[in-house]
Amino acid sequence: MTTTLIPVIVGVAGLIIGAALTYFIAFSGARSKAKRILQEAEAQGEVMKKNKLLEVKEKFINKKAELEKEVAARSQKLQQAESRMKQRELQLNQQQSDNQRRRNEIDAIKANLDSQLQIVNDKKTELESLQAQERERLEAIGGLSADEAREQLVESLKEEAKTQAASYINEIMDDAKMTANKEAKRIVIQSIQRVATETAIENSVTVFHIDSDELKGRIIGREGRNIRALEAATGVEIVVDDTPEAIVISAFDPVRREIARLALHQLVTDGRIHPARIEEVVAKVKKQIEEEIIETGKRTTIDLGIHGLHPDLIRIIGKMKYRSSYGQNLLQHARETANLCAVMASELGLNPKKAKRAGLLHDIGKVPDEENELPHALYGMKLAEKYKEKPDICNAIGAHHDEVEMETLLAPIVQVCDAISGARPGARREIVEAYMKRLNDLEQLAMSYPGVVKTYAIQAGRELRVIVGADKIDDKTTETLSADIAKKIQDEMTYPGQVKITVIRETRAVSYAR
After folding, report:
1. Contact call for residues 248 and 235 (beta carbons, < 8 A)
2. In degrees, to the nearest 5, what angle opens at C-alpha 158 toward C-alphas 155 and 161?
């Protein structure tokens, strides 16, 4: 059995040995292959290492070049800054040397001035002592103290200064008149030339013409009942006298006179004249006149291009047609003033529509519906405020006769244009007694001044000539006298337009040959 197992054992051992040899051979091949792969990997690693080193070296070289360039630029800037600093240092050194030189010069000048000031002080002390000695000598010679002489000198200087000031003022006033008056006259004349208006003179009576005197008895009626009914219905006085073919209607109210005239015309035309018919016709005419008043107000505002007025203001404007002021029709005066205001406002660069509105409304206080004690300018301003007119319009209405203070440029324009419309030739009619009294007051006012010999009011009171004595007033005083008289006339008198005051001083030498 042992013999039998030996070959088996030998065979198994051979197999084991063969397997071991095979494994050893395979292990040796794998080891050599692994060794070869490792060598290849090491070779590749060396190549990669070299490449990376080359890249790093290249980046280092580039970075080094950039840094060197930046360092060079900074070095250049530093060199430039250093050169500028050197130049600045040189300039500062130069300025310092110049300052030192100037300081030395100033010190020398100061020392010189100190010495001269000392000399001046010495001279001043010496001069004061000489002045004191001279003053004492002059006081002893003239018999006047220094204070008295000073007062006399001051008085003489005052008189001389007054004379020079009066001359200077006259020069300024003449220059202002040459410029301002010229421009003002141009504007006023141009405004007047551009406005054409009618001249209307009205009285407090109206003459009603009839075809024959037989109608007078019918108008009077039995026992005067017709004329009494007519007077009671219209509020006028009807005068039936010996005047041929005429009846006089007398009343201070032009509206009443117009109502009576139209009523008489309708009654005479119809032929039926009795109290009942008279009342019917008068009522109809009153309604007709009221409608005509409103229509006149509307037509006036449309003609002037004024819009947005309160209906009551339009009615008041229409009533102006039947009112007069110093013989001048009030509506015509208001229209003329409105046009003048518009032209003057345009010349001065202001709003012409506002100026025209203020000019039309400036006299609405003259046609009140109820009696009042206010001046017509103030009452007109209250009416304008009541009917929501703008403040500048209200102020222009109230200030056109200086009852209130002027607040806008519209107010003086309205005042001037109102004066132009009222003062132009033929616009208004004065009572002869009032006219003569005004001229006499002008002459007497000028005669109240000392040195005035004669006075003459000429050109319908537009110029006052004053003759002064040559031995009482000198040439300089005549200028002051003219201004004083003008101011007193302006403050104390009422007159249309302006008054020119001419003071005349002449010297006459009279001799006789015998």
Report:
1. no
2. 155
269-326 confidence digits (pLDDT tens): 877 888 888 888 888 888 888 888 889 889 988 888 888 888 888 888 888 887 776 6
Residue 251 phi/psi, 5-degree rounding, is -170, 150
> What letter would DSSP give residue 249?
E
Tokens at 52, concatenated: 């990376």
Q: Pairing mode, if any, of strands 463-468 and 452-458?
A: antiparallel
Q: What is the C-alpha to C-alpha distance for residues 388 and 370, in angstroms, rounded to an integer?
A: 20
DSSP tag of 19? H
DSSP per residue over 344-402, as a string? HHHHTTS-HHHHHHHHHHTTGGGS-SS---S-HHHHHHHHHHHTT--HHHHHHHHHTTT
- β-pairing, 500-505 vs 463-468, is parallel
pLDDT at res. 202: 46
State how far the Cα of 43 lies from the Cα of 268, in Å rounded to an integer.
153
Calculate the dihedral angle through the C-alpha atoms of 120, 124, 127, 129, rounding to the nearest 10 degrees: -140
Q: Are 493 and 442 in contact (CB under 8 A)?
A: yes
Tokens matching residue 346: 């345009």
Tokens 């007054």 found at: 162
Instruction: Name the strand (E) or helix (H) holding 235.
Output: none
In angstroms, the CA 161 to CA 155 distance is: 10
Report the distance separating Cα 263 and Cα 284, nearest Å: 9
Q: Round to whole Å and give the CA distance between 250 and 245.
A: 17
Cβ 309 vs Cβ 242: under 8 Å: no
The model's pTM is 0.46
**Do residues 488 and 445 lie in contact, with contact meaning Cβ atoms separated by under 8 Å?**
yes
Any alpha helices (H) in 456-500, and if so which ranges?
475-492
Residues of the chain with pLDDT under 70: 1-5, 138-146, 149, 173, 175-205, 213, 325-327, 422-435, 496-497
Chain position carrying tokens 């009572």: 431
CA 123/CA 117 separation, integer angstroms: 10
Residue 337 CB partners (closer than 8 Å, separation 6+):
359, 360, 362, 363, 414, 417, 418, 420, 421
Q: Report the chain's terminal Cα–Cα distance, integer Å.
A: 223
What is the four-CA torsion angle of 272, 276, 277, 278, rounded to 10 degrees?
A: 110
